[in-house]
Structure formats: structure tokens, C-alpha cells
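Weekly sync, protein design subgroup
Attendees: M.S., D.O., the rotation student, P.L. (late)

Item 1: inverse folding check
M.S. brought a backbone from last month's batch and wanted to see whether the design step gives back something sensible before we order anything. D.O. pointed out we never logged the input encoding, so this time it goes straight into the notes. C-alpha cells as presented (384 positions):
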């Protein structure tokens, strides 16, 4: 039984417009056909046969089924029905439909004409009073009120459509942002891990020191396990619809520096920030800036010296990765990893969403600098 009700509700929701058309057509038939058959109808014209009155009622009802495409057959049918049968209800239904479906540009003038027809039909009606004042009030009420209700219905539909469209656009935007965020996380995690693993593997090929080989192999294994752990955590969050909290913060930056030193880079690090004053998200952004900067050095300037500065200045966190021009190219293996082009773009999106600024470009000395400045609130971050 509940299944049948559910199927009927679904059908009614899908065919709501067609059902409304059928109900309006049925209302026209209910007000015209019985009065003609019972001899309670009247006509503004003399000696109108019953079959013509019945035909007028049926034709007007049929015109109601076309009201969503065009309003004029319905309006003309309502006028003809009022003239031949004396029934004024189709005039009210036509007034509502022409505004609700927005099929008449200057509906106010059409409403005036429908009101005039209503007044004449009601005044001639032998079954109602003959007070012109009351007849006019009824005509204005039963024509203009449905027309105004139709305009409200039309505006409500338009507003509802705009809201739904806005919701869809927001959902699409949120989905797009989510995809870009996932792509950024995957890029940062995989690119850094693979770059380090490839470089370590290349160094292994160039050395015969078994102790060094073991150390480099252990580094490859550690980076692989770290990348798999991050990917597993990211996938788990996506499946459970939880908020992703990366385990990499500012405290993990020294490990990035040590990994860079293991493959031959000369890196200096300066950390100066209040302990516990940064949110986990802000710490993660700082980590990603350093990670991307070191990746770029490995790819484009493997023989340069690198200086990393991560410090807080008031309510702004500044992170910079600056490298000198190419130097000891023979002592550092170049990275053969292909450039994806998404690193800096994804990092710029990260920093921008955090309310900060990202700058990158060559230095006057011929090197390259990557600098991020991210505002934060020390008091709130420290309490949380």
C-alpha cells in the first residue's frame, strides 16, 4: 500500500503541470455541461441550441489543456462560453492562467475586456441580482484577483527556479573546488615522494658504497610508506566525508630539509614562530610551501644553495624558499621527473584561500625565490 502511494506521489510530482491542466478543464466542464443539461443556462444571443452550448463548454475545456503553450484559445473560449452559456467561471480560470503561465504581455488590458464580458453576462443572468454595483464588484474580484494570484504564482516559480539554479551552481562550484583540492593534495604528496625516490634511486646507481646504498634505499622505502600513508588517509577522509587534517605541520619542515641534504642539496633553515600559535591548517600550508620550493629546486636548480625562512611577524606568517643560481651541477643529480605545471598553481590557490599572498620569481642574483605571506590570529590560534 505504501509502495502504491509512493508511486502515485512520484507520478504526481513528475506530471504536476499536466494534472493541473486536466483539473482546470474538468472545472470548466463541471460548470457548463450540467447547467445546460438541466436547463439552467442562458445565452446573450437568442435561440442558441443546446448542442452549441455543450460544444462551447467542451471547446473551452479543451483550450485549457493548451494554456501552457498559448493563452488566446483559452481566453476566446472563455468569452464564447460566457456569451453562449452565461457561465463566468471560465473567465476567472482564464484570467489566472494567462498570468500564471506568462503568455500574455499586456494582461491588464485583457483583464479589462474579461471584466466587461463578466459584467454583461452577470447582468443578463436571470438567476442573479440586477444591482450593477454588486455585479461590478463581483466582476473585478473574480477576474482581477485570479489574475493577481497568477502573477504571484509566476514570480514564485521564477524565484524557486533561480534558487534551484543557484543551488546547482553552488554545488558545482563546491564539487569543482573539492576536485581541485584533492588534485592539489595528490600532486603535493605524490610529486614530492616520487621526486625524492627517483633522486635517491639515481644516486644509488652512481655509488658503490654499500652503507650509502642502504641509507638511500631506506630513504626510498620511507618516502614510499609516507606517501602511501598520506594517500590512505586522504581516501579514508573522502569515503567518510570527514574533514581532512594532515599530519604534516611546521615541525615536519626540518625533515624535508634533511631529505634534501641526503640527495646533495645544501640547505639552511631558519624557524622562528610561536609554539602553538598556528592552526593545523596554517601549519600545513607552510609545510606545503617549503615542500614545493624544494621540489622546484630539485628539478630546476639542483646545484644551488637553498635558504628556507619560516617566521612570524606580528599577525603574518612568512615562509620563503630562496635558492642561488646553479652551482655544483656535477655533485648533485638532476631530477628526470617530468614537470606537471600544477605545483605553483595549486599552491597559489591554497595560499589565496587562506587569505594570504604567494610570490615567485627570479632574484636579482640570478636565483629564484618562492615567498608566501599568510595572516593569522595568534590569540585564537593559541587557545584552540
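Designed sequence read out in the meeting:
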Amino acid at each position: 500500500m505504501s509502495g502504491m502511494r509512493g508511486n502515485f506521489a512520484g507520478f504526481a510530482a513528475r506530471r504536476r503541470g499536466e494534472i493541473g491542466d486536466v483539473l482546470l478543464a474538468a472545472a470548466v466542464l463541471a460548470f457548463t455541461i450540467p447547467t445546460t443539461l438541466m436547463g439552467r443556462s442562458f445565452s446573450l444571443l437568442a435561440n442558441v441550441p443546446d448542442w452549441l452550448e455543450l460544444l462551447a463548454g467542451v471547446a473551452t475545456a479543451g483550450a485549457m489543456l493548451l494554456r501552457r503553450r498559448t493563452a488566446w484559445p483559452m481566453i476566446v473560449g472563455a468569452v464564447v462560453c460566457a456569451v453562449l452559456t452565461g457561465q463566468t467561471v471560465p473567465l476567472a480560470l482564464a484570467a489566472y492562467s494567462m498570468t500564471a503561465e506568462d503568455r500574455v504581455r499586456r494582461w491588464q488590458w485583457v483583464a479589462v475586456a474579461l471584466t466587461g464580458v463578466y459584467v454583461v453576462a452577470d447582468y443578463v443572468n436571470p438567476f442573479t441580482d440586477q444591482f450593477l454595483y454588486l455585479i461590478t464588484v463581483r466582476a473585478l474580484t473574480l477576474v482581477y484577483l485570479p489574475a493577481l494570484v497568477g502573477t504571484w504564482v509566476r514570480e514564485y516559480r521564477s524565484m524557486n527556479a533561480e534558487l534551484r539554479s543557484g543551488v546547482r551552481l553552488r554545488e558545482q562550484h563546491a564539487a569543482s573546488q573539492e576536485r581541485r583540492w584533492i588534485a592539489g593534495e595528490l600532486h603535493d604528496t605524490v610529486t614530492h615522494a616520487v621526486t625524492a625516490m627517483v633522486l635517491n634511486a639515481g644516486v644509488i646507481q652512481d655509488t658503490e658504497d654499500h652503507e650509502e646504498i642502504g641509507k638511500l634505499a631506506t630513504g626510498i622505502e620511507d618516502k614510499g610508506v609516507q606517501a602511501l600513508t598520506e594517500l590512505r588517509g586522504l581516501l579514508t577522509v573522502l569515503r567518510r566525508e570527514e574533514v581532512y587534517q594532515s599530519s604534516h605541520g611546521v615541525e615536519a619542515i626540518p625533515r624535508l630539509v634533511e631529505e634534501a641534504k641526503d640527495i646533495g642539496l645544501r640547505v639552511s633553515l631558519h624557524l622562528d614562530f610561536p609554539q602553538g600559535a598556528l592552526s593545523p591548517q596554517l601549519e600545513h600550508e607552510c609545510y606545503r610551501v617549503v615542500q614545493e620550493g624544494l621540489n622546484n629546486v630539485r628539478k630546476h636548480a639542483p646545484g644551488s644553495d637553498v635558504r628556507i625562512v619560516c617566521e612570524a611577524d606580528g599577525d603574518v606568517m612568512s615562509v620563503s624558499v630562496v635558492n642561488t643560481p646553479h652551482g655544483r651541477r656535477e655533485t648533485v643529480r638532476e631530477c628526470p621527473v617530468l614537470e606537471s605545471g600544477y605545483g605553483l598553481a595549486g599552491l597559489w590557490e591554497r595560499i589565496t584561500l587562506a587569505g594570504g599572498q604567494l610570490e615567485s620569481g627570479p632574484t636579482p642574483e640570478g636565483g629564484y625565490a618562492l615567498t608566501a605571506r599568510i595572516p593569522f590570529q595568534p590569540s585564537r590560534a593559541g587557545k584552540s
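Discussion: Residues 379-384 have pLDDT under 50 and may be disordered. The beta strands are 266-272, 305-313, 316-323, 357-362, 368-375.
Action: P.L. to compare against the previous round before Friday.
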